Amino acid sequence: MASPQAASPRRPGRWARFALVAGPGVVVMLADTDAGSIITAAQSGAQWGYSLLLLQLLLVPILYIVQELAVRLGVVTGQGHGRAIREHFGRGWAWLSVGTLIVACVGALVTELSGIAGVGALAGMPAPLSMTIVVVGLTLMAVTGSYRTVERIALAVGLFEVVFLVVAWQARPDAGAALAALTVMPWRNPQYLYLVAANIGAVIMPWMVFYQQSAVIEKGLTARDLPAARLDTAVGAVVTQLIMAAVLVAAAATLGRTHAYRAGSLDTVQQIAHAITPFLGERAGTLMFALGMIGAALVATIVVTLTAARTLGEVLGFEHSLARGVHEAPWFYGTYTTTLVLGGVLVASGVDLVRLSVGVQVMNALLLPLVLGLLFLLARRALPPPHRLQGLHAALFGTAIGVAAGLGLYAGIAGALS
pTM, whole model, 2 decimals? Predict the structure, then answer.
């Protein structure tokens, strides 16, 4: 007779469980380093050299804290962010939060699709054609695929962003200059403050909270998966900030060496690529930049569009899961497709991507007090005692969130009013 121990199913080990659970954290973090974020980092390095590099590193733990709360709320309560706000604070706050989300999603989507159009222009492809390919391809992906399929596609295209680490290495940055610039922070300069706000908004975005809280639910994660989900989030937070830092370093080591770009003369993706690539080799540099930008923009487009459709479903009460077919969730797929189409049409009309991208990130920073405030209150109210944010833990998390939101708000207002 087999022993009870032998008969019982074998539980997966720690790393096996991590492999099963991982995905939502890395995907949302790769989406975090989107086209707008990359352009903001490049603009930062071009105008201020390495002065904003330290900020990228300081944002790693704050980014993890914010997204860990979203993970905790999702796996423990089984509720998406919009639904949790509606149930605990009422429909008014739910619609206010969804309104800010939609504004952030629209701004983000336009920057992602503009980034893709910019890369297409490098290859001589007109914007209407590149937008048509992206809209049709991503619509078919959502309609025909499951959550796991979409997650794998997002991971695959997002990993192209790692090429920016190679770009930074090839740019041969001056380590001494980088270390010396870590303490150079011209806080009284409004242009510097504006980019501080833009970088904070580029790292901590409203739609990331909504996406990851819903994604862990759709993947079927439970409280038992929380340790692995936290590790997934931590790995993603480190990777995304390394990529942001790499883009900034590459721009500082190339464009920052001259004074031609200090006045903010980078207006298109093509200008950024053409400015950086002479230092890296024309063909290789262009190819690396294009791969990184495409990966960043595509994964963020997937995440942002799904977030908008899911959250509207949570608040309005219609079915909002990739596990459902088109006939079972017509409003979900209709919202997803309509959002993509409208974004594609707007981008095909032509926009100033660099100014729009930096402006969108500043807008994200201005929205942080509302978004992070509701997240913190939910972690204090919606979670049961074993997982509730309380005591010293709550004080530390609250301080980190408050500093990030306050600094983003102050820098954004000061920079915009100058």
Answer: 0.85
